[in-house]
Design goal:
InterPro entries: FAD-bd_PCMH, FAD-bd_PCMH-like_sf, FAD-bd_PCMH_sub1, FAD-bd_PCMH_sub2, Oxid_FAD_bind_N. Pfam families: FAD_binding_4 (PF01565). One of its GO terms (molecular function) is FAD binding. This is FAD-binding PCMH-type domain-containing protein. It is a single chain. This protein is of the alpha+beta class. It has three domains: 54 residues, no CATH class; 105 residues, Uridine Diphospho-n-acetylenolpyruvylglucosamine Reductase, domain 3 (2-Layer Sandwich), CATH 3.30.465; 183 residues, 3-Layer(aba) Sandwich (Vanillyl-alcohol Oxidase, Chain A, domain 3). The protein has 13 helices and 15 strands. It is globular, with a radius of gyration of 23 Å. The N terminus and C terminus are likely disordered.
């Protein structure tokens, strides 16, 4: 076999030693016979090479059509429309993008793209396999004609910097028919600080099928209406509750998860659940605008070392201020496959060594520059306070819109 052909086809060969071997084909049961090697050809020469190789080594060939698990998405589509289209075709396919359904895929993919499946399958940009790009001279390029350097740059480096991306080819991922979601709230009176502190040490080390993010915000205590802090633990597990509960007991017993907290559903139902649309028609995902539009300011940070428990006291003080009535901090866990993807695979370098990402956010409804400035000043004070506890030299941030992963 010519060396160029071998280099090309080696990228589409999956053996039983590959971590993604099982996701390439849907094996209905654990006892379903599995091939020694799976080839996902991208061009005719790959098929030719696979047939010649099988003849040489006495291997049988079984052809499976319609299992490419890819889709072209126009850049003007929203994440919600993409999810809706996938759900119409399959109950066991998904895509690792964000929570907010009204965000456009163009900006989402080109900035990286976070979501509940990131610990299992990486970012949205990690699952882009081709793109159509119009450059300054008006030429329409695909991955082959634009070259690997430019294709590398648009998957996390911001698409608008290099031309106009009009479509993306994405690789869909496999999910079980049943997933489990939970949202568990704990206040300061319920030991929230200790639990969040423990989360810092386990969140990136949990099984890759388990994703748990944390929201910190102010709340009103049931005790005499006193203000307190609430930590909300939101989770998606790729499996049933009977598997999740012993896994949590082993990995994160401090949360105290019980079966009553767990809700089993399909993947698309989990999308609806975390977007706040549980029980509604899937067609709500096709809406291009949110029902309640508010002003907001958001900033982000990367955390490589656990924040000292005592530092949370300063965060709480900020949340007790008037401007923080509708403010929150979101901790997004890393680990899983994010540790395995090279820092140089895409322009998105925050991989191994990152525990979690922080999204600082404040919202307000009052119009006018005075209200805006007060809230912006508040988040700047919070951001300044966090400086000693986050990444340094440089202080890292996420290039995409902070709300595009929910």
């Amino acid at each position: 076999m010519h060396s160029d052909n071998f280099s090309s086809i080696s990228k589409v060969i999956y053996t039983r030693n590959n971590s993604s071997f099982s996701s390439i084909l849907d094996f209905s049961t654990p006892t379903t016979p599995k091939p020694q090697v799976t080839v996902t050809p991208l061009k005719e020469s790959h098929v030719q090479a696979a047939v010649k190789c099988s003849q040489k080594y006495g291997m049988q060939v079984r052809v499976r059509s319609g299992e490419a698990k890819t889709a072209w998405v126009q850049a003007g589509a929203t994440i919600g429309k993409l999810y809706h289209a996938i759900a119409e075709k399959s109950k066991t396919l998904a895509f690792p993008a964000g929570v907010c359904p009204t965000v456009g895929v163009g900006g989402h993919f080109s900035g990286g793209g976070y979501g509940f499946l990131m610990r299992k399958y990486g970012l949205a940009a990690d699952n882009v396999v081709d793109a159509h790009l119009i450059v300054v001279n008006g030429r329409l390029l695909d991955r082959k004609s634009m070259g690997e350097d430019l294709f590398w740059a648009i998957r996390g480096g911001g698409g608008a910097s290099f031309g106009v991306i009009v479509a993306w080819k994405i690789k869909l991922v496999s999910v079980p028919e049943t997933v489990t979601a939970f949202i568990v709230n704990r206040t300061l009176e319920q030991n929230a600080t200790k639990i969040v502190d423990r989360w810092q040490y386990v969140a990136d080390k949990l099984h890759e099928d388990l994703y748990i993010r944390v929201f910190l915000s102010s709340a009103t205590s049931s005790r005499r209406g006193k203000k307190t802090i609430r930590a909300s633990f939101e989770s998606l597990f790729l499996g049933g509750a009977d598997t999740l509960l012993p896994l949590m007991q082993q990995s994160f017993p401090e949360l105290g998860l019980v079966k009553q907290d767990c809700i089993e559903m399909s993947w698309i139902e989990s999308v609806m659940h975390f977007a706040g649309f549980r029980g509604r028609s899937l067609d709500v995902l096709l809406n291009r605008t949110q029902p309640n539009v508010r002003f907001f300011k958001a900033k982000s940070d990367i955390v490589k070392e656990p924040i000292p428990e005592i530092a949370f006291l300063g965060i709480y003080e900020k949340f007790y201020e008037k401007e923080a009535e509708d403010a929150e901090i979101i901790f997004t866990p890393y680990g899983g496959i994010m540790n395995e993807i090279s820092d140089f695979e895409t322009p998105f370098p925050y991989r191994a060594g990152t525990i979690y990402k922080i999204q600082h956010m404040v919202r307000w409804e009052e119009e006018g520059s005075e209200a805006s400035q007060r809230h912006i000043n508040w988040i700047r004070r919070l951001y300044s306070y966090m400086a000693p506890y986050v990444s340094k030299n440089p202080r890292a941030a996420y290039i995409g819109s902070c709300e595009d992963y929910g």
